[in-house]
């Protein structure tokens, strides 16, 4: 069995409304999840709160699209093998490389 259920304007993770006027409409993104139970796929949206990632160094939540990865610092990888970090956890060298990476785009 591989059924898909469209749950409309609700977050597929927390089931809060992401409809206009809900306060979660602007930052919602299309999403789906597959539950292990009967392989039921839920189709709807994800709210920004459910898309928060944990910083690999300090564990604090990083808002959607605010995580920093090694390639954004022009690096093949962080020395401590972290994958995603918050701006507060960048070393001085990483921060300099991150800022210069974006100055090149301007």
Overall description:
The chain is an alpha+beta fold. The protein has two domains: 4-49, no CATH class; 52-103, no CATH class. The protein is built from one helix and five strands; from the N terminus they run βββββα. The protein has a three-stranded mixed sheet with strand order 1-3-2, with no helix packed on it. It has a two-stranded antiparallel ribbon with strand order 4-5. A hairpin with a 6-residue loop joins β4 (53-54) and β5. The radius of gyration is 18 Å and the shape is elongated.
Query: Helical content, roughly?
Result: 10-25%
What is the global morphology?
elongated
Beta-strand content: 15-25%
N to C succession of SSEs = EEEEEH
SSE map:
Layout: E1 4-11, E2 29-34, E3 41-46, E4 53-54, E5 61-62, H1 92-103
Parallel strand pairs: 1-3
Antiparallel strand pairs: 2-3, 4-5
Features:
single chain, 106 residues, alpha+beta, three-stranded mixed β-sheet, two-stranded antiparallel ribbon, 1 helix, 5 strands, elongated
In brief:
Helices cover 11% and strands 23% of the residues. It has 106 residues and is of the alpha+beta class.
């Amino acid at each position: 069995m591989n059924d898909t259920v469209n749950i409309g304007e609700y977050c597929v993770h927390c089931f809060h409304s992401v409809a206009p006027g809900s306060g979660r409409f602007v930052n919602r993104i299309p999403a789906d999840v597959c539950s292990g139970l009967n392989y039921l796929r839920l189709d709807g949206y994800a709210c920004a709160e459910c898309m928060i990632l944990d910083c690999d160094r300090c564990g604090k939540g990083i808002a959607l699209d605010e995580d920093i990865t090694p390639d954004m610092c022009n690096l093949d990888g962080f020395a401590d093998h972290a994958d995603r970090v918050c701006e507060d956890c960048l070393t001085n060298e990483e921060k300099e490389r991150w800022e210069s990476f974006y100055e090149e785009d301007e």
